[in-house]
């Protein structure tokens, strides 16, 4: 006698088991993901009301990471600036030492001062023209191939070169202290941008960068920025260029009058000394800005540790618990596969 079962058929049980296997497989995949990443697979579903805090922390992390990257780029630029100014001072120091050693008139004459000054002048012009990431280091807020005009190269608009202007000023020679004082007065006007001919002013003749009060600034984050820009039209550059140009345009060996010689060399040495002091101060200012950026990056790194620790508390998973969950799900899935396999081997009568 055949009895019909009132329970679910084995076909239904087999289909149900397959669905359960699929669910277990999905759960196992999520558990393996959590084990490998250390974070919950569905973070915001898992932490509920803590999701808003997690979103805010992630946003702060992204903002700080972007600020840190920008700070690192700025630090590279500032490092290059300080290295360049250090090289400038080394170049000029040689000419200054030579000028100081020969600042007093000697009937036996002097030699080497003009050569040393020309070498320092060319080095200074080259170093001032350096750029970082396509932007001039000392040209202000504009980019130009020549921040400082080469000594014998004429400006395109005026057709005047620095050498031409100095040659014209010294055409009468330095035959007395009065002659030297007269030329020095005109040089003071040129380097203070108050010359009678505006084309001979410093910012028209020597300097090709931006003018005005706008300076390059470093962003420290949270809306705070600090000016760091050192420009080749700063007073320190003007004084160094003035002293070097004086020694290049007028070879001290050709000054025959002792008073004219003393006046001329004294003014050149004074300009170089003031300029060197100014360059050192500027270098220190840039170094201070770099130090602030380094401190800011250290603070960002410290905050990142705190943020990540809190995020781990919110959406992280315990490694031991995650591993146990994976093991448990694997065991369940293997058992389910075993049952499903046995069901599939039953005869037709089992499906009735």
Short description:
With 352 residues, this protein is mostly helical.
Question: What's the SSE blueprint?
Answer:
Layout: H1 10-37, H2 43-47, H3 51-101, H4 113-128, E1 131-132, E2 135-136, H5 162-169, H6 177-191, H7 202-205, E3 217-221, E4 224-227, H8 235-249, H9 258-315, H10 319-344
Antiparallel strand pairs: 1-2, 3-4
Helix pairs in contact: 1-10, 3-4, 3-9, 4-8, 6-9, 8-9
Number of domains: 2
Annotation, overall tally of beta strands: 4
Largest sheet: 2 strands, antiparallel
Radius of gyration: 39 Å
| Sheet/helix structural class | mainly alpha
The CATH top-level class label of the largest domain:
Mainly Alpha
Give the spatial strand order of the biggest sheet.
1-2
Order of helices and strands: HHHHEEHHHEEHHH
Counting DSSP H or I runs of 4 or more residues, the number of helices is 10
Residue fraction in strands: under 5%
CATH topology of the largest domain: f41 fragment of flagellin, N-terminal domain
> Which outline best applies?
rod-shaped
**CATH architecture of the largest domain, please?**
Up-down Bundle
Mean pLDDT rating: 83
Measured distance between first and last alpha carbons: 15 Å
Catalogue the unreliable spans: none
């Amino acid at each position: 006698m055949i009895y019909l079962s009132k329970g679910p058929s084995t076909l239904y049980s087999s289909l149900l088991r397959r669905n359960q296997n699929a669910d277990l497989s999905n759960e196992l995949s999520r558990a393996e993901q959590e084990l490998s990443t250390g974070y919950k697979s569905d973070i915001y579903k898992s932490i509920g009301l803590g999701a808003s805090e997690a979103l805010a922390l992630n946003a702060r992390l992204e903002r700080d990471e972007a600020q840190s990257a920008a700070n690192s780029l700025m630090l590279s630029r500032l490092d290059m600036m300080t290295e360049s100014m250090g090289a400038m001072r080394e170049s000029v120091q040689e000419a200054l030492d030579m000028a100081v050693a020969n600042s007093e008139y000697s009937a036996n004459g002097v030699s080497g001062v003009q050569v040393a000054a020309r070498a320092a002048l060319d080095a200074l012009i080259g170093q001032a023209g350096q750029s970082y990431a396509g932007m001039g280091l000392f040209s202000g807020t504009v980019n130009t191939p020549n921040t400082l005009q080469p000594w014998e190269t004429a400006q395109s608009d005026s057709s005047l070169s620095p050498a031409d202007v100095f040659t014209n000023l010294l055409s009468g020679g330095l035959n007395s202290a009065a002659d030297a004082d007269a030329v020095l007065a005109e040089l003071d006007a040129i380097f203070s941008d108050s010359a009678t001919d505006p084309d001979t002013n410093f910012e028209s003749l020597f300097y090709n960068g931006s003018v005005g009060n706008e300076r390059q600034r470093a962003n420290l984050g949270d809306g705070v920025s600090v000016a760091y820009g050192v420009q080749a039209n700063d007073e320190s550059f003007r004084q160094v260029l003035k002293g070097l140009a004086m020694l290049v345009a007028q070879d001290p060996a050709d000054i025959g009058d002792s008073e004219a010689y003393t006046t001329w060399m004294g003014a050149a040495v004074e300009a170089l000394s003031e300029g060197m002091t100014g360059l050192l101060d500027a270098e220190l200012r840039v170094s201070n800005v770099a130090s602030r950026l380094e401190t800011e990056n250290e603070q960002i790194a410290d905050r990142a540790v705190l943020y990540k620790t809190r995020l781990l508390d919110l959406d992280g998973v315990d490694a031991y618990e995650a591993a146990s969950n994976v093991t448990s799900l694997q065991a369940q899935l293997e058992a389910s596969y075993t049952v499903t396999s046995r069901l599939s081997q039953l005869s037709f009568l089992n499906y009735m």
